[in-house]
Amino acid sequence: MSEKKAESVLEGRDLLLRLLAFQTPEGNFPTYLHDFPRAFDPMLGLKMGAVLLRALRDCGSLLGSGVKQAVETALQKILVFTEGRRTQKPLPPI
What we know:
About 65% of the residues lie in helices and about 0% in strands. The protein contains three helices and no strands. The protein has helices at about 5-20, 45-65, 65-85.
């Protein structure tokens, strides 16, 4: 692996870990970082889940076991959060 590519992989790992630090305990992500720990968009977790799943699938071997485990944990939290939202009854129309 070239030095430039290795540097890019390390930077990507760092950015991914910094992003995961903003996941709420429930499993969602804030739309804006200054909103943390509040997350107003209930679908943002699913949107982020697609990106995380793609990173895991395409770059999983480059992430290292610690980062890979962190991404898998984040995906599990997203699924639990989404499943919990799905089972809630919708509000009646006004």
